[in-house]
Write a structure and sequence with these properties.
Shape: elongated
Distance between the termini: 34 Å
Structural class: alpha+beta
CATH superfamily: Outer membrane efflux proteins (OEP)
Low-confidence stretches: 1-46, 111-143
Amino acid sequence: MFCRVTRICFAIGSVLLSSSPLVVQAQPPANNPVRNGLPLSASKAMGKTVQLTLADVIKLVLQGNRDLKNATLDRIVQRQELKEAEGKFSPTITPSFSFGVTKSFNTNSETSIPTDNGSSSGTSNSSNSSGDNVENVVGTGSLGEQNSSTTFSRDVQVSANLLTRIGTQLTLTVNPLSTQKLELSIAQPLLRGAGRLVNEASVKNARFTEKQNILTLKQSVIDKLTETIAAYRTLIKTQEAVRIQSLALNSKQKQLGFTKILVEAGRKAKVELVETQKSLADTEQSLGAARNSFAQANSDLLKLIESNQPLNITVPQPDINALDNTVLPKIVRSPEDLVALAYQKRLDYQQAKIAIDTEKLNQRIARNNQLWNLDLQGNTSLGESSQASASLVLKKTFGDRSVKTEVLRRRIGVLKNENRLAQLTDNIRREVSDRLRDIDSSLMQLKTAQQTREFADRQLQVSQERFKRRGGQTTLFEIIQKQDDLVAAQNNELNTKIDYLNAITNLEKVVGLTLDTWKDLIAANQSLIQ
């Protein structure tokens, strides 16, 4: 989709032009085998120059970029968190086994009772920790002896808990070693905490969060795709700039040699030799700057790929040549249709609507928390002796302002998110309009640049003809100027075409069509959109 670049060749007595097209392939190749994460052609040249299409580069970024890898790893935890939240109403079973040893120490004190013979004797009763009376006979002495006893205990218990969607809390306990073999307790909220809306709120919030997480991951993919496409086109621009400057340098080197022959023959003044040398030096400087820009573009692209192999990426020339036969894409939809499509496709717009739904749900929960706690509670135990009980418990905490604060916070949160959605609605409309204007402006500049390049090409051809026919009415300095004008026009046409393509890519991002454009490549990495 890039412009034709004119190859400049200067031969003795004339300057001849030949053209070769420039390239970018925006569609994935039909058959492109991959080995070790790289195309087969690239895998054979590790650490060397490799030719990669735009589809190849995007595939490598989707597979190797660590930011996307980390985002994919985060999704593993996020999916598990959703399962955890959705398991709120699943029963839980807790088995418990215990074996214990208890050691008791009892101290018996002696009470002296006078007798007729003046001696003292007596007994003392004391209770152990279990409440059993133990009788100890104590001999003479003022202080009793310390006795100890050891008891062993064991317990086997299984508890099951279940929360229903209307808030009923069921607890079943089985203890085969106890006199009460089975215990069942039921608690049913009647005001605060009652009903499906309140009890399913945490599950709905988890599902809202899951949708937000998926949209966030998709937005990361869109941002990385857009960045990669722009970086690849920068690589194309700099690669072709190097080629244009190289052809110009080659032409001026030939021109310098011819000028030296003319100066030695006395047909040209030495000043024209100086002008040719200066033009050659300027072209060498421009070529050096172009090569540096190409190296930087290659480095920027490797940062996105994050390959551990030192690669020198270039754009395949057949792909560049194929773009000359490609019709530039046109925007066929009206601005109103694009805006409506953006409201449907934009991920941040969907996230804004989910944020409103989340705040409204939390607002209902906050209002429910203002109610009294009115619970119906029941207990049943079965065993050697069975019993059942029921009670109605009414409770409320006064003086706690956090509940009212939460209601206010959620109400303000709803208003703020509605404002954000309205702001985003206006921004999307303006962004679509701005990107369409950028496309129109870029297309106009591209047409002008193409005309300028055609005029520069014709002017150079005319100057060459005059130089050959009239033998001196057109100087070499004028031909050099025309050559420089043509090189500048070629670079300008290339830059404007890149700008036009980038403007279309930016419009796709604004409307939300990036994932649709590259869906075939993304389909091979399903974890990036789930």
